[in-house]
Amino acid sequence: MQDIVGKRGWYFLFSALIIVPGLVSLIMSPGWITLDSGLKAGIDFSSGSVMNVSFRQPVDEDDIRERLDELGHSEALIQRIGGANYFIRTEVLEEAVGDGLSEREVIERDLEKFLGMERDRVEFDTVSPIVAKETVRTAFYSLAAASVFIMFFVWYAFRHVPKAHRYGVSALLALAHDLLIILGVFSILGRVINLEVNSMFIVGLLIVAGYSVNDTIVVFDRIRENVSRHPDRDLASTVNLSIMESMGRSLNTSITTLVVLLAMIFIGGTSIRELLLVLAIGAVAGTYSSIFIASQYLVMWDRGEIGRFFRRGRTATVSSLMHLIGR
Amino acid sequence: MRSRSIRISITILLILGIAIAALGFKDITIDIPGFPRIERDGTGPLGLKLGLDLRGGGHLVYQADTGTRFDVTFADDVSINDLITTLRGLRFGDDDSELEGLQVVPIGPNRYQIRTEILADDDPRSTGLNDALAEAHGDITLFQTSVIPEPTLEQMQGVLKNITGRVNRFGTEEPIIQIFGDDRIIVQLPGASGSVTTIGLAEPDPAAPAPEVEVDIFTDLPRVLAEAGYEDFNIEFDDAMNFTVRSNTVSSQIQGQAFAAIVTQIGAVNRFEVISGIDDAKALIGQTARLEFKERTCENQSCTTFSDADLGLTGDDLSRAEASANQIGIGWVVNIQFNSRGSDIFSELTRRISTTEAQATKRIAIIMDGRELLAPVARAWIRDGRTQITGNFNREEARSLAIQIEAGSLDVPLRLIQESDVDALLGSESLKNSLIAGLVGLGLVFIFMILYYRMAGVVAAFALVFYAIVVLAIFKMIPITLELAHIGGFILSIGMAVDANILIFERMKEEVRIGRTLASSMEVGFSRAWPAIRDSNISTMITCVVLLWFGDRLGGGLVTGVAISLFIGVAVSMFTAVVVSRNLLQLMAWIGLGGRIELFTPESLNRTSQQGIQTPAPRGGR
């Protein structure tokens, strides 16, 4: 049988390689220091500009989108409001720099030239965010509250197993792990490729939170079953056995979920891609954390490795990690 | 065992049948006396309700109604037309300035509200108006000036919050509400689009001279409507005199133009009514949403004529209003709680009007923006300011009333300056592409499941189709306004719904591997997989309930929407795996497929040497 538990130091190191840079990126300015978000807020979460425009003859929405894409406003939300009138939301348009044209003028001239927009009937102003800050805050508070409930539920569900609270804490840890990976990856991508987060991102986080614990409990269930069947066995080998036994299910569920996601990423429209990306990262992280974080954390706790890890102090952190990896 | 299985099969088919019917009939109306009426007529495919991003809806723009208001009462009779003529002719000060943005609203007998743009206190137009009007129309008994200044950002944010609270009634619709510029608010609501105009022409007066130009209603009516500004309309001719026009939302301005044009170009009209999808939202938002309580004295039995007396009791004197189920009767009630000032006034009022004699003629009129919401009779002397309005309300009516009563007046009075339909936020391609992608994904999952689990995979495929149909039917009947995020989440949840099936099949395989028969492998597999399915799904449901609770309290429509659709998905997927898949597998075992284990798991082929040996399970149960 494969020895999965023995290499547990590696798994934590691997996760840390993603989470630590992600956390740094989240905290770095603009981040918690400036009380701003380390994520790049998209059009849903930030103030923007609105142009209410009319065209001389009916135009196709796709043509407007094409023009705006060309001008670097792929974030634009375009809605027809009756007849040949359109309501266009964009990011805040920059004022003119020096003697150049302002962004607004550039867009107006372009739409007039190519699509016959009536420039004297343009209404232009700023708008507040579509999704209020409170909604985002609500989402995070709810997630935090849900996590606490989940911890107690797992504790309760595993009450017949010795040291049931450890299962609750480990499940919580796996959940936090998955959410941190998503937040970190999006924060880094925001800095590197200007990836913005919109309301779809919040939707994705909430779905992943539901999925992550679901997956962890399935693996824990095997451990619960095997612990009560072989009470004398060392927990490490019980966990190892349980992981191997449930591996088929874990892989198959991940494969089916990823198949659907990949099909949608490649065939589906661009508008839903952000959600799919969150879910794809969440599905992989969720499966990974159930096997390699939550379960291993149980073993580490059982062997008192966590206390040892922290007691040794900072200088010894690396060597203790090496010790774990070297096993 | 078998009869139980048959009963379950029948139940499953029944559920499937109901779900298919719920989706198959686009418009559904269920009206059972004693139960709330159910009407489902979403405009999306299968009659589903689609959100702003996929389908569009109604678009309202409000502007802070700023300016200077003069409340003038004349001693003599003054007609509104004369007053307007006078006002238009007035010039003030050294530079002969006029009253700009002039509007006159009659608010009582010989009492008018004159609205103009914001004037400074020492502006000659403000100081000189009283004298100028007195000179033209005689004595003025009352002259009041009030200025509604430009709103501050804080005030606009207050208005935004207030409107969001009103519109977010049930948490599953996701409106877009934004502050636009300094003094405007944009409200976009999913689905609330389109207008229905009913027009009834009057019989031509036989004494009147025949029209010079022959009117051909079939060509003239469309032309007249189009000229007035109707868009995307079609006309149903009920008979030669009555028509129903379905169109994009028509603003009151277009309605006025159409009415005038029909009267001049087609003939006299005795009925012209417009009902717009966005009317409900407009009523809920109100203009200033000023709430007043008045003492009503009825002048006849049915109280069709009455007079209202001011009590000085307004929305500011309320501390809360909420809907609840009626404890002692049927239906829903609205509970109202006044603050201490309100309680005193209300106590004094109910003491007077709750006597048996007074109940015959006295009512309490609850008025919003001058429009009556309700006029209940006071049944008791209420001393503590807690009262309950009973009526034959259903849940939706009671909640809507409570919201209107509680939401309080807006910090800034609003004026509706634009109303129209709005198209989907995302192109129509988005929905189509996502659906195609979802179907392809689903197909791949089927292929994978069938290749890997053989007949059991076929069972899983059927279970998934069942799952998808039932979830969509529930979405439709609740109803949930579907946004692209929900649809993405739904398609993904199909992938996840497979999980419970996989858990069961993997356990089954283990049991087959140690030599059980198919039927007993199924039973043992199910019972072993059950704790994992139960606990994992309950944990997801707990997450959903917590999100729902928080989202509802803290006002996050986004959060509640996700929580509800995820909860439904998990609940149905659990039922599907545990009841539908299990029952199907049992049926297969009984119709003779049970002996052919190789149809269920390819691995069983490797243990032909063991066939026929019934090894008892070496492992104890949990």
Number of distinct beta strands of chain A: 4
The coarse overall form of chain B would be elongated
Number of H- or I-type helical stretches of chain B: 15
- Main-sheet strand order of chain A equals 2-3-1-4
What kind of sheet is the major sheet of chain B?
4 strands, antiparallel
Helices and strands of chain B: which structural class? alpha+beta
Mean pLDDT of chain A: 84
**Class derived from helix and strand content of chain A:** alpha+beta
How many DSSP helices of chain A?
A: 10
Distance between the termini of chain B: 23 Å
H and E string of chain A: HEHEEHEHHHHHHH
Largest β-sheet summary of chain A: 4 strands, antiparallel
Can you walk through the features of this model?
The complex is a heterodimer of chains A (327) and B (622). Chain A is an alpha+beta fold and 327 residues long. Chain A has helices at 8-27, 61-70, 103-115, 133-157, 164-193, 199-229, 235-267, 273-302, 305-311, 313-326; strands spanning 48-54, 77-80, 85-91, 123-127. Chain A has two domains: 5-39 and 131-326, Multidrug efflux transporter AcrB transmembrane fold, CATH 1.20.1640.10; 48-127, Alpha-Beta Plaits, CATH 3.30.70. Chain A has ten helices and four strands, in the order αβαββαβααααααα. The two termini of chain A are 17 Å apart. Chain B is built from 15 helices and 21 strands. In chain B, a hairpin with a 6-residue loop joins strand 16 and strand 17. In chain B, helix 12 runs antiparallel to helix 15. Chain B is elongated. At the A-B interface, helix 2, strand 2, strand 4, helix 4 and helix 6 of A face helix 4, strand 8, strand 9, strand 21 and helix 11 of B.
Architecture blueprint of SSEs:
The complex is a heterodimer of chains A (about 325) and B (about 625).
Chain A: H1 8-27, E1 48-54, H2 61-70, E2 77-80, E3 85-91, H3 103-115, E4 123-127, H4 133-157, H5 164-193, H6 199-229, H7 235-267, H8 273-302, H9 305-311, H10 313-326
Antiparallel strand pairs in A: 1-3, 1-4, 2-3
Chain B: H1 2-24, E1 28-30, E2 38-40, E3 57-64, E4 67-74, H2 80-89, E5 103-108, E6 111-116, H3 124-137, E7 140-148, H4 153-167, E8 176-180, E9 184-190, E10 195-201, H5 217-228, E11 234-237, E12 242-247, H6 252-265, E13 269-276, H7 279-285, E14 291-298, E15 306-314, E16 318-325, E17 332-338, H8 340-353, H9 356-361, E18 362-368, E19 371-374, E20 386-393, H10 395-406, E21 414-422, H11 428-453, H12 455-477, H13 484-513, H14 518-554, H15 557-590
Antiparallel strand pairs in B: 1-2, 3-9, 3-21, 4-6, 4-7, 5-6, 8-9, 10-12, 10-13, 11-12, 14-15, 14-18, 16-17, 17-20, 18-19
Helix pairs in contact in B: 1-12, 1-15, 5-6, 11-12, 11-13, 12-13, 12-15, 13-14, 13-15, 14-15
